[in-house]
Amino acid sequence: MSLTNNRFRPALLSAAIAAAASASMGAFAQEQDEALEEVVVTGIRSSIVDSVSAKRNSDVVAEVVDAGDLASLPDSSIADALTRLPGVTAVRTGGQASGLNIRGMDGGFVFASLNGREQVTTGGSRAIEFDQYPSELISQATVYKSPKASLIEGGVAGTVELKTANPLDNAQDHTFHVSTRGMINDRGNEIDDADKIGHRFTASYQGKFADDTLGVALGYARLYQPSASSQFVGFQYNGSGVVDGESVAVSEGFEAQVRGGEETRDGFMGAIQWEPNENLSVQGDVFHSKFDSENYARGFRVKTLQNGTLSNETVNNGAVTGATVSGDGSGSFAVFNINDNDSRYTEVLSGGINVTWNQGPLTLSSDISYSEADGEFVNGGTRAILYNDASNPSSGRAPETIHYLLNGLNPGSFTADQSYTDLNTIALTEVGMWPYINNNELNAYKFDMKYELDMGFVSSVEAGVRYSEREFSAQRQQAGYGSEFGGHPTELPIQLTADMVDVTSFGGELSGYPDFLAIDFDDAVALVNAANAAAGRDPFEATSNWGNNWTMIQSGKVNEDVLAAYFQANIESELFGVSVTGNMGVRVVDTEQYSTGLFQLGDGLGTPIADERGVINSDYIVTRVGQEYTDYLPSANLNFHLTDHDQLRFALAKVMSRPPIDKLKSGGGSWFDDGATEDRFNVWGNTSPLLDPMYANQLDISYEHYFEETEGAIVAAFFYKDIESLVTDITIDPFDFAAAGIDIPERNPRTGNPSINGQYQTAYNNEDAGYIRGIELAYTQTFEFLPGIWSGLGLTTSYSYTESEIDAETGLSGESITIPMPGLSKNVFNTTVFYDYDSFSTRVSARYRDSYVGQQLAVDSQLAFFDSETVVDYQASYQLENGVEIVFQVNNLTDEPNKTYFGNEAQTGTIQYFGRQYFLGANYTF
C-alpha cells in the first residue's frame, strides 16, 4: 500500500518582506569598533563582553554565548549556558538542563546545528538533548530568533548554532589547557547504593604550524557524576467514586521512589584547518559524545485506588486527595514494590569537510557532512506484591490497607498496615523490559556562493543549494515474565531470597515512608531464566515479537530527503540619512518524506513476516507511505543604526518546523468491533507519514542601546508568531479508509461479517492554532567607573513575558480543563552578578521561570502543570602566579525541586529533589 501527495505551497508573507533588507555589518561595524576605547578584560567578564559584541554585530535578532576559547565555559553542558539568555528556558532532566524552550515553545520547535551542520537527535522527536554537548568543547553558541535565507530551515521557535574552535583564530601559536574538578552531591548519603562523589576532566590543545597556514585543535571532556534524588509522583485522576453522596474524581494512584545511579559522558572534538594562501581554506572537524546514564528507581507504586475500598476520604475541589484504601487481594488495587532500570545510552557523532575559495569579490564554499545519533532506553523493571505465603503462590494474594494524604506541592503522608520487607509474604510477580532503540543518520551536501557588489544599496548577494538524506529507525522490544498483578496462568510468582534483596529506607523529605526491598534487576533476570529453563521456555531476552504485536507495529523507518535552495541579498546603505544594514531573501525547500512500517489486516489476510524470534505471522502487510511538498520561506532583517550606539531592528519571516520524526511512521494496529450483521474495522497508531510541517509567520522588533564609556547594552524586543498549524493526535470515528487509500479487509475473518469503517486513531495537522507573542528586556553593564576594587563589578539580567492564545483540553485532573501551550512560561527572569578583579573572579546566577505545562514522566507520560522554579548557581576562581587557577562551583545552590500538579495544586503530581552539586578543582593553561 502506498500513497503519495504532491502539493505546492505559495509564500504567505506579503510583498513587504521582499522589500526588506539584510545585514552585513562590514565596514560600518569596523568603524564602530575603531571608535570604541580598547578595554582589556578577562575571566567571566570577557565572555559576557564578547557575547554582547557578537549580538551587536549580528545580522539577525540573536543571542550569543561566547566562550572565547575551548574549556572556558564552566557549565556541565551547553544547555546550562544557553538558559541564561533572554527568552530561553530549560527543562531539567535528572536535575540538570537538557531540553530547551525558546520563546515559550518546546524543544520540538527548536532547530540545532553544529558548525553550520544539522544535528540529529538521540530520541524519537526532533528535540535536541543539549546535555549531550559538553560546554568545554563549545567555543560559541548562538540562538537565532529571526532567520535569514542562508540558515537551514527547521526552527519555528529559533535555531541554536553551536561552534567548535577554529585553531587558526587562536591568538597563541600553541595553547594547552587542562582542567580537573571533584564533585559531591549532598543528597548522595540519603540514597542506598548511591555514590555522592564525581569528577570532571578536560584537556585541550590548539596549535598553528607552517607559518600559520595549518591549524590543529583537539579537545576531550569527561563528566562522571552520581545521580541521587527522591521523588513522589501522583498519577492522573481517571477514576471516580462517591463521597457523602457527591461524585468525586479518584487518582489512578501514586508512587514514591528513591533514584540513584551514575552518569558518564565522554566528549571529543578535533579540527584541522589549512589555509595555504589567502584564497583557499580547507577545514575538517569531528565531534563525538557518548553519554551513559545508568539509573535505577526503587520504592512503591500504588495502583489502582478506585478499585480498593475507600474510607476516611479527604476531598479537595471534587477530587479525593487522601484516604484509607483497603483491598482483599482479589482485585486490581495493589501496592507494588518496584525496582526500575531507567538507564539510557546515547551517542552522537558529527563531522564534515568544508572547502572555501575566494577570488576578488567571489567566494565559493562546499561542505559535506554526516550526523548520527543513537539512543537506547532500557526501560526495565520488577514488580513484587504481597501473598499470604510467598512460598506457595496458590495461597493467593494477601489483603492490604494503606493510608495516604497528599499535601499539595509538598510531600504528603503514606503509611501501611502491613510490612513490605518480609520475604515470607512478598513475591516477585513480574520482570519486564520494554526498550526504546532509535537510530538517526543524516548525510548532507551544501554549496554556497557569495559575490561582493559595489552598487550602493546591495553590498553582496548570496545563493546556495543543500541536499540532505535522513533515515530514522525505531525499534520497540519486549521481554517479560509473569504479570503485574500476579495472575499469569503459567508463569508463577518467584520467591525472593535474602541474598538478592536489601531492606531500604527512604531519606530526606520522604523519611517515614514504609521500608521496601531493593531488588537487583540482574539477579531478578537470573531467577527468571532459571524458571524459564525449568519450564522449557526461551531465555529472557528483549525482542520485537508477534506475542506483543505493538513492538512490531511501533518499529519502523522514516526517510526524509530534502533539497533546498536560497537567494539572499545583503544590504548596506542609507535611508533618510540613517545607516541601514540587513538582508532579504527566500529559501525554497522541497521535501520528500516516506515511511516503511507494518499494517495489521487480520487473521491470515497479510503476507508471511517473521519477528525476531523467528515466528511467522500472516496478519500484516508492509506499507510504504509518504508525500512530497515544496515550501517557500521568505525572510528579511533590517537594522537601522540610529547612532553609533543605538540600533533598531525589524525582522519578518515565514518559518517551519517538521513534525516529530517518530510521528511520521506508517502502519498501525487494528481490531474489529463485532456487530449483529456488520463488524467495524478500527485502526490505532497515532502516527502519519502524511503530516505537514508546523508553520508560522513571525515579526520581530528590537531596540538596542550599547553603552559608550563602559561595556554593556540595554535591549527591548517584541515578537509575534502566527502559528498556522500544530501536530496533534486525533480519533476520527467513523473514518473513510478507502478515500485515504487504505484497503481494509472485506470481511472479519473471525465472524465472516462484512467490514465497515470504524475509528482511526492517527496524528494530524491542527490548522486552528493561534499566536504567540511577547516582550524581552535585557540589561548588561560593567562598572569600570566605580572606584577601586568595585570597578570589577558587572551585571547581566533579562526578563521575558510570553503569552499565547493556543490552548488544549485535558482530563487528567478528573474533569475537562483548558491548559496553555506546553512549554510556555509567561514570566521568565535571568540574572547574573559577576565580579572580576586582579586574580579573583566570581559570579552568582539565578534563573526563574513561571509555571508551565509539560510532560510528567510517570508510568506513562502525562501532561501536568510544572510549578514555578528558581535555580541558583555559584562560581568563584582565583588565578595563581604559576598559571594554575583554583575553581569552586555550586550548582542548584538552593536545592530547587521539580514540582507538578494537575487541575489544582492540591492534586499533587511530581515532587522531586535533586540535591546540590559542589565542585572544587583547578585549571591550568600554558
UniProtKB/TrEMBL annotation:
InterPro entries: Beta-barrel_TonB (IPR000531), Beta-barrel_TonB_sf (IPR036942), Plug_dom (IPR012910), Plug_dom_sf (IPR037066), TonB_rcpt_bac (IPR010104). Keywords: Cell outer membrane, Membrane, Receptor, Signal, TonB box. Its main location: membrane. Residues 1-29 form the signal peptide. Residues 55-158 form the TonB-dependent receptor plug domain. It is found in: Cell outer membrane. The keyword Signal applies. Residues 410-893 form the TonB-dependent receptor-like beta-barrel domain. Belongs to the TonB-dependent receptor family. PANTHER family: PLUG DOMAIN-CONTAINING PROTEIN, TONB-DEPENDENT RECEPTOR-LIKE BETA-BARREL DOMAIN-CONTAINING PROTEIN. This is TonB-dependent receptor. It comes from Microbulbifer harenosus.
